[in-house]
Amino acid sequence: MYSYILMSFIIISPKFNKNNLLEIELQNNSSKVFQDIKLCFSLIYSIESLKGATILKQIGRYYELNLDKSSFLPNEKRVIFIKLQKSRIGTYNLSSGPEGIFIIDKEGIIADVKIDKLIFLEPIKQKTYEKNFFKINCPIVPEPKIFNLKNNNMDLANNDFNISDQEMQKFLTIMNPTLKLLNITFNSSSGIEINFIKKEMNKDDYKIVIETNSVEIFANDYGGKLYALITLIHLLFFYKKKLPIGEIEDNPKFNWRGMHLDCARQFHNVDQIKRLLIYMCLFKLNRFHWHLTDNEAWRLDLKSFPNLAKNSSFRGYECIIPPLYGSGHNKTGGYYTEHDVKNLIEFAAILNIEIMPEIDLPAHSWALIQIMPELFDQKSNIESQDVGNYKKNTINPSLDKTWNFLEKTIKEINNIFPFNIIHVGLDERPNLAWEGSPEMLKFMKKNNLESFGEVQDYYLNKVINIIKEKNKRTAAWNEAALPPFNDIGSGGGEGNIDKNCLIFAWEAPEVSSLAAKKGFQVVMCPGQKTYFDMAYNNSTYERGICWAATIEVSDVHAWKPLSIIDPKYHDFIIGIQGQLWSETITQKQYLDLMVNPRLATLAEVAWSKDNRRGWDDFRAALNQSMKILTTLGWKYHNF
């Protein structure tokens, strides 16, 4: 065990120098001689080379370094020079420095450290944005199909309304804290009655008719009624106590309007997820893609494997899972119990949001294999490594224990999640993942499989059939149906899989077209437009990565998803989705600026008509939406 006695402190000063090298300066600010200290931290870019230290241990992008000289004298300074993996834009930002830093000496005593802020000797200035906004024509995001309000108003003493419709009461209950902050009341006995009238309409369509003394909402289903109320919330917040008379008619462009959250790289608790779900509802998004497992953790508690989440969901220096992605020395993390999951499913359903779980397999399984090594062929004589530097991170479908695990896991997930789709990953399988496995060679010979692509197809088709037996559908990333689009040392399938598999096309916009032409339904989620872990621009003062692009709010707005799809394949595109991968969310407060306002902007793309309003008009409406969100406690990035 390691002692928690704090030593005299060491000052740690990270900076990027003029040659784009990361320098970590250590200053012994004490009278003590330290021996054989170990500097521990994580990065989002891999170390290519370094001077002044050697790598003692590496897992993923967590590093433990030994200084070149064993004795660290009083008032001495040491500098470690690190060349990082090159970023796409050639420069780095605030997410690129060492995170979760701590120091331990050879006796296992943890140093008291003072960590200076990351600085850049050649900083790139923050981008400036136009401060003025156009006049607002329609204050609602996403823009309704028909917005016809007149100059005369319904005069309101307060924003007080009454809704007696029983179907909407649970929605009003969970939205009550939000409505209070916005000074809107929908349960006032003396308020103006909002009447709901059932009318034959498509799913989620609605019509609002505002008269001098009444509000009527026409819809055919719960979603239409709810989205009409969301539109009213936007109107009432903007117009305050003078609601214009007129009509609004609306319907969504895409059925799938989604948001993905990576809860494996960082643990987002139930309340944090609920906060995001309310945001989604306010902008008429209806699918939450819950990424529950990855190399760094398995967050879903399973009765069949009670130690899996408990042992893989916490990380720290003395844990099985090391301090990845900024988590630091002490034990941190968490997982979701069945009660947590059902709580969120019920909450989301009231907001008209379905939750799709994802277990990312067969690769991205380093944490899983640490707890269940029997899912990997231990006789394998080749050590594979994925793009994130994780070794031996892919479960082996030639092993009976793998299928025992999969069948029990899928059965439990089916019982917990009512949504009819289960996402099973299939991305970024290292080319050599199964190369040296004796069991795999026997398996391939027995089943007449000639390539690892065919093995992947066999694996996925068997998973699809297990899920079909539960009367559910399988979803997977685009490598399930196509060869990898980007050359990062990963393998894909041969594409000979059940066409019922829903494909999430992430690597590039063109991938959606390729998958649709092969007969797969597709959710478009290209990294170049929808990955909200991407930095907004190349300023050193931004956060995020940039392997796909830098993505400004205006870039999201300009995206026309179907423009690159042959019209005869448009019906194969069921929707679009935003993604937040959590490697850079090393502090909870970073989430807001990465998501907001890009997610609200994506909602406009997902909902509104093809010839939607231009940037200046939209930007004015988005600024109004940011006033709603700041009232609710959200921060946002300028645009």
Q: Keywords for this structure?
A:
639 residues, alpha/beta, 15 helices, disordered N terminus
Give the helices and strands, then pairings.
Elements: E1 10-16, E2 22-28, E3 34-35, E4 38-42, E5 47-51, E6 53-59, E7 62-67, E8 71-72, E9 77-84, E10 99-104, E11 113-115, E12 119-120, E13 146-155, E14 161-162, H1 169-181, E15 192-198, E16 206-210, E17 215-219, H2 222-239, E18 242-250, E19 256-262, H3 270-282, E20 287-291, E21 293-294, E22 297-298, H4 306-312, E23 314-315, E24 332-333, H5 338-350, E25 354-361, H6 366-371, H7 400-416, E26 421-425, E27 429-430, H8 438-446, H9 452-469, E28 473-477, E29 490-491, E30 502-505, H10 509-517, E31 522-524, H11 527-530, H12 553-558, E32 573-580, H13 590-595, H14 598-607, H15 615-631
Parallel strand pairs: 1-11, 1-12, 14-15, 15-17, 19-20, 19-32, 20-25, 25-26, 26-28, 28-30, 30-31, 31-32
Antiparallel strand pairs: 1-2, 2-9, 3-8, 4-7, 4-10, 5-9, 6-7, 13-18, 16-17, 16-18, 21-22, 23-24, 27-29
Helix pairs in contact: 3-5
Report on this structure.
This protein is of the alpha/beta class. The chain is 26% helix and 24% strand. The chain is built from 15 helices and 32 strands. The strands form eight sheets. Strands 19-20-25-26-28-30-31-32 form an eight-stranded parallel β-barrel, surrounded by four helices. Strands 1, 2, 5, 9, 11 and 12 form a six-stranded mixed sheet that branches. Strands 13-18-16-17-15-14 form a six-stranded mixed sheet, covered by helices on one side. Helix 3 runs parallel beside helix 5. The radius of gyration is 26 Å and the shape is globular. The N terminus is likely disordered.
